[in-house]
Amino acid sequence: MTRFLLLLLLPALASCRILTSGDILSNEINDDDCNLPEALITEIRSFEETANTIMNSILNGKFKGATFSELAEFVDTFGARVSGTKNLENAIDYVLDKMKSNNLENVHGEEAWVPHWVRNEETAQIILPRNINLPVLGLGGSVSTPKGGLEADAIVLNTFEQLDTENVTGKIVVFNEDWVSYAVTVKFRSKGASEAAKRGAVATLIRSVTSFSMSTLHTGWQQYEDGITAIPTASITKEDALLLQRIQDRQQRIRIKLNLQYTRYNDSLSRNSVAEIQGSLDPQKVVLVSGHIDSWDVGVGAMDDGGGAFISWYALVVLKQLGLRPRRTMRAVLWTAEEPGLVGWSAYNASHFHELDNFTFVMESDEGTFTPLGVEYAAGTEGGCIIKEIVKLLAPINATRAVASARGVGSDISSWTESLIPGASLLNANERYIWFHHTQADRMEVLDPDNLDKATALWAVVSYIIADLSEDFPRSRNVSN
Amino acid sequence: MTRFLLLLLLPALASCRILTSGDILSNEINDDDCNLPEALITEIRSFEETANTIMNSILNGKFKGATFSELAEFVDTFGARVSGTKNLENAIDYVLDKMKSNNLENVHGEEAWVPHWVRNEETAQIILPRNINLPVLGLGGSVSTPKGGLEADAIVLNTFEQLDTENVTGKIVVFNEDWVSYAVTVKFRSKGASEAAKRGAVATLIRSVTSFSMSTLHTGWQQYEDGITAIPTASITKEDALLLQRIQDRQQRIRIKLNLQYTRYNDSLSRNSVAEIQGSLDPQKVVLVSGHIDSWDVGVGAMDDGGGAFISWYALVVLKQLGLRPRRTMRAVLWTAEEPGLVGWSAYNASHFHELDNFTFVMESDEGTFTPLGVEYAAGTEGGCIIKEIVKLLAPINATRAVASARGVGSDISSWTESLIPGASLLNANERYIWFHHTQADRMEVLDPDNLDKATALWAVVSYIIADLSEDFPRSRNVSN
């Protein structure tokens, strides 16, 4: 097939590959889709022994259980690590010190100005039709109610469209939206306050964005629209959203008292934590692995994103201690202040803009480190075929799937991977990720030592091979050779 | 086979039928085990049309969704219904009034003295190795700490045996027991305080008794041993128990500050709620269906045991409104004060002791109303065969399983069914029951309208047929005819 003909066909092929929730198999690349040069396939296969050495050292050797036990000690020592806090900076110092004691190279912090928002006091009470305590959890960046709280009638809505058909002026708007998917449903959390404020609402309470609840409150950042009055906004449990819906459906008046007190301090300096294994032949070229070190103030951020940060760090620790130094530089970055809006990445991107041409491949794990299945990638067809070949070497840990993302991958790295830098995230059995997301249940017990070992092994094998290949990983998207 | 030979074989057969967790199939009765008279089988099968009428009216007819919507209105109106409180009595008044408006017969309350234990204030803090807030939930009946709290070193244990090998004097004992099953593991909750007090501990913190946690606290009643100093006792989350275990395993000193303030008021009068459909031929004989109306103070007791109470009540409502009056009396009892130790049942048992010979069959649902599968029974071989034949009529709702219990069934009715009164409980897909048990997550959202309909239908069909059979349900145990 000529390249020209193939280009004509590509839009149709691409449209088959839109990632759909629960059906990622349709985006899985097959060998039949690939036409890699034999030499490249042979080269990738030549890494089998190295890959096995890496996996063995983690699954059965000296690194067994290390990712979990190091992460447990870290979160047990520091707990939650909130953007702007001294505790986060202490945690970053701890990590940088440890990275140095791991003999990683070029270990340093890179400064970033980050937001600092703190919850002081949060109470809410349904007072009509009867007194019911209403647990609430403010959304990141929310303004406060007046001191002493506010009291208003509440109206329960299910869509933004209802804001135009119902009178919400002076009311507390309760969004009891159905769960569809995080991508679809999160808009109620991120934009609900401003949408309701435009129509005169005095506060919003958002049903926690989750597929499953055990009376669990989920926080998360939210964004006020410029020029719109900022009103206080907090999450409530799915159970209470449905309770309020039933009360309204019975034609009963709902009145709520809400006292939300927060402080937004001035931005403060934090740091992205960086460690490297310098490349042996092309040290200016970079394969980057990453996760974020900051967390929400509920739970301890073991899952989001302790797991992703620590597999990125430990991938380098393992390679270094095994004496594996690839052609290109491997760089681990533990982002700061991801939760308030990719703030650490944004600073990093600005200061490394000149260097991005040298970013061969970027990886981020920020969607759980449950049982690893393979990788999700944004890398074009040829890139996907290379990844497919690489993950075959992960057969010993049963993580051989390569799934194309329709857009970018990752959270911090999403802008990079939506444009031209190829990248990958960890494909893992994360069906329950959302259950724990931004909740007090984000604890070490979500994680499993063996799964973390497998994730570290996968992360190390994939990044190492891409960093050591004789040819640079292809940048072109959607073009097969 | 002669009856004599069969009797010799029975101990061996019975030993195959010990209920084992996760393997109840081995206790399922098969037609091959049965030798019912043809006339009895024919009679049971003659109920098919009636059974279908009952099921249809609930699943597709006028009662569709009624059990759920009535229960939702009830728990939304009253919330938690704690033994000894005015709120519980208001809820009982509401139920009795509704039962009368349902035209049920002989509707009345029967008095019982019940405990009244209230939690006032509960805070705990790990202060060494660092300050960590420690959510706690006191166990029912716990005494208070001194005003202002107590502070002590803590020791984490996994078994009662370790109380004899470790020095716990003056310490807070944290029981971080593995989850095995509720039956096995609950002893740490119910007896942990006294066992630790015997060795000089000053308080106990018990890992919540559950197979799964989302930082969830589980309360429950606990029993102080006579003559042993009563020490304060509360549950902690599984996550915090494991955190404390890890800290101890790192040889770090653990110090905890604990402030638990409770009030034990004098016992007060409550009521078991009773409604009947009087028997047409043998009104003195009773088939009893039941669940308990009281709940813990966390959550709203929708699952434990709103579902069981309401299917019992609604089984009678449906039969009454369909004009079905069986030979024997059907009696619904909504027990009060089950949670503090079957207190309502105990009073009822004492005042009805003279009548127990007339209790033909007793039923209780207190282990969830998830997808109904059939019934678990304590009824001997012949009784089991009758039940097996009856549940065949439940094929339209796919709930045809009849499983023998090695001991009794139910909670309130367990003493009755462990002795000679045959009885049954609802067999349902309750694998997640323990997740929500005695927690703030026990809300309406655990329940499903269709499953509640099926449970009501099952409950009505089984109880009605047993109440209407021409022969009394057999009392003899383990004797086939």
UniProtKB/TrEMBL annotation, chains A, B:
Signal sequence, start to end: 1-16
Primary site of residence: endoplasmic reticulum
Compartment(s): Endoplasmic reticulum; Golgi apparatus; Lysosome; Secreted
Protein family per UniProt: Belongs to the peptidase M28 family.
Descriptive protein name: Carboxypeptidase Q
Keywords: Carboxypeptidase, Endoplasmic reticulum, Glycoprotein, Golgi apparatus, Hydrolase, Lysosome, Metal-binding, Metalloprotease, Protease, Secreted, Signal, Zinc, Zymogen
GO MF annotation: an example: carboxypeptidase activity
GO biological process terms held by the UniProt record: peptide catabolic process; proteolysis
InterPro entries linked to this entry: CPQ, Peptidase_M28
Domain annotation Peptidase M28: ranges: 272-461
Originating species: Ceutorhynchus assimilis (cabbage seed weevil)
GO cellular component: endoplasmic reticulum; extracellular space; Golgi apparatus; lysosome
Alphabetized Pfam families for the sequence: Peptidase_M28 (PF04389)
Subunit and partners: Homodimer. The monomeric form is inactive while the homodimer is active.
